[in-house]
């Protein structure tokens, strides 16, 4: 396995832990609109990883690892898991080299928001979502999803820029492996 694969696998825990910390931090401060900020964080990490290793399947694998951190943190809603997976799968749908650029990466939040809302409303029949039905789903996807896409324009550009720097750096094998292990240990203590 190449250093690039290990680097990408080290970024997956960073995505998952970052989502947990950002969500909890914003909730503790009483801030709303947490989903767009958390999504922008995920796009930053995915763009960074995709720039380092533009291989089909790598983004879905990262999403699976990141989503598993939510399970470790006690977020057991399938809709949250599906939202993370939807972004990773979207990143993997196009196989042409260089397809992911900032605007397309930013648009990948919409399938994520839609997956979350549909599962919450029709799969789990959660109060707010089930009672509001399609109007709530559309409002969530179009309003929160659009804020997430807007934030993600910046984070995707930053992620792709950072990926060029990482690819130029000569990172020893043990650095990403150690970061990946540290991420799993940190998840245990969250």
Provide structural commentary:
The chain is an all-alpha fold. It has one domain (3-172). The chain has eight helices and no strands. It has helices at 3-28, 34-52, 58-72, 78-93, 102-107, 109-123, 127-168, 174-189. Helix 2 runs parallel beside helix 4 and helix 4 (78-93) packs antiparallel against helix 6 (109-123). The radius of gyration is 16 Å and the shape is globular. The two termini are 29 Å apart. The relative contact order is 0.18. The model has no long low-confidence stretch (mean pLDDT 82).
Key words describing this protein structure:
about 80% helix; mainly alpha
* Beta-strand residue fraction: under 5%
Structural class call reads mainly alpha
Number of helices: 8
Shape: globular
Identify low-pLDDT runs.
none
Mean pLDDT: 82
Task: Provide a quick synopsis of the model.
This protein has helices at residues 3-28, 34-52, 58-72, 78-93, 102-107, 109-123, 127-168, 174-189.
Blueprint of the fold:
Layout lengths: L2 H26 L5 H19 L5 H15 L5 H16 L8 H6 L1 H15 L3 H42 L5 H16 L1
């Amino acid at each position: 396995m190449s250093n690039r694969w290990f680097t990408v696998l080290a970024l997956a825990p960073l995505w998952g832990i970052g989502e947990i910390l950002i969500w909890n931090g914003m909730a503790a401060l009483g801030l709303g609109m947490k989903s767009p900020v958390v999504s922008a964080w995920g796009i930053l990490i995915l763009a960074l990883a995709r720039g380092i290793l533009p291989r089909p399947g790598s983004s879905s694998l990262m999403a699976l690892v990141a989503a598993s951190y939510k399970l470790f943190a006690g977020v057991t809603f399938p809709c949250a898991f599906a939202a993370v997976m939807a972004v990773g799968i979207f990143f993997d749908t196009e196989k042409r080299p260089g397809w992911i650029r900032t605007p397309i990466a930013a648009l990948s939040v919409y399938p994520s928001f839609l997956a979350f809302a549909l599962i919450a409303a029709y799969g789990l029949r959660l109060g707010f979502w089930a009672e509001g039905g399609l109007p709530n789903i559309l409002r969530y996807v179009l309003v929160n999803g659009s804020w997430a896409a807007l934030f993600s324009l910046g984070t995707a550009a930053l992620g792709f820029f950072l990926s060029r720097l990482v690819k130029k750096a000569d990172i020893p094998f043990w650095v990403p492996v150690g970061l990946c292990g540290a991420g799993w240990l940190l998840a245990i203590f969250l």
